[in-house]
Specification:
The protein is α/β, with parallel strands linked by helices. 51% of the residues lie in helices and 15% in strands. It contains nine helices and nine strands. The longest helix is centred in the middle third of the chain and has 29 residues. The model has no long low-confidence stretch (mean pLDDT 89).
């Protein structure tokens, strides 16, 4: 039975990955900060899908939390999903530097360290995969969040290109707006966002796993977001920044 480790596993895209992988017969290692909620999620997955679930409470914004998850990755996983992340409530210039550094710790350092902890075992076995959850925001210009997600995309593609083993895959998943707790946690008012811009988390995961099986390095779920990213690449950077700010 293959093992999947998922960070940020109790809500949103992480929870959707947990449901889908449990249905596919994976043994799960669930990582999140909230130990109580983590245990409740694991129990629901065990009851519904009959799979083995392991809980690993850890705060990835701390060295201690990162080290715990690194150790588990080195022990052996077949699929790593680096999903943990958050948004800031205020604009870049109005956000304390400590909060920005915490974001970079979770979005960048954690992705780097956990990927590099998991890959040696995968390469030795000749199979395995890493999915790093980025964002469509990474293709645009909007503060530290989009900057960190741009790093995730570049890092993932660079790593995928450097791995010689054909059975070991690295992919970045870049969704647009997804109906999860993400924006509520950041106290963002998203009531003005048109309905057609929202994606379903389970569908995002289904498309991501399909793209992973196809060997893609970048997965952008839905035709509308593929089109948005494609158009954005041809527009002047200043114009893209102004449009991003308005959104």
């Amino acid at each position: 039975m293959p093992t999947a480790l998922i960070t940020g596993a109790t809500a949103g895209i992480g929870a959707a990955f947990a449901r889908r992988l449990a249905a596919d017969g994976f043994r799960l290692v669930l990582v999140a900060r909230d130990e109580q909620r983590l245990g409740e999620s694991a129990e629901r997955l065990r009851m519904r899908y009959g799979v083995e679930t392991e809980v690993l409470p850890a705060d990835l914004s701390t060295d201690e939390g990162l080290a715990r998850v690194e150790e588990r990755c080195r022990a052996g996983v077949d699929l790593l999903v680096n999903n943990a992340g958050f948004a800031q409530r205020h604009d870049f210039l109005d956000t304390p530097v400590e909060d920005e550094l915490r974001m970079l710790k979770v979005h960048c350092e954690a992705v780097l360290r956990l990927t590099l902890a998991a890959l040696p075992g995968m390469r030795k076995r000749g199979k395995g995969a890493v999915v790093n959850v980025g964002s469509v925001a990474g293709f645009f210009t909007r503060g530290t969040y989009s900057s960190s997600k741009a790093w995730v995309a570049n890092f993932s593609e660079s790593t995928a290109a450097a791995i010689p083993e054909p059975g070991v895959k690295v992919m970045v998943l870049c969704p647009g707006f997804v109906r999860t707790e993400f924006h509520q946690r950041a106290s963002m008012d998203m009531s003005g966002m048109p309905g057609f811009m929202w994606l379903n988390a389970d569908k995002v995961v289904a498309e991501a796993l399909r793209d992973l099986a196809l060997g893609k390095w970048v997965s952008i779920p839905s035709l509308r977001y593929k089109a948005i990213v494609a158009v954005g690449r041809f527009l002047p950077r200043r114009l893209v920044a102004e449009l991003s700010a308005r959104i």
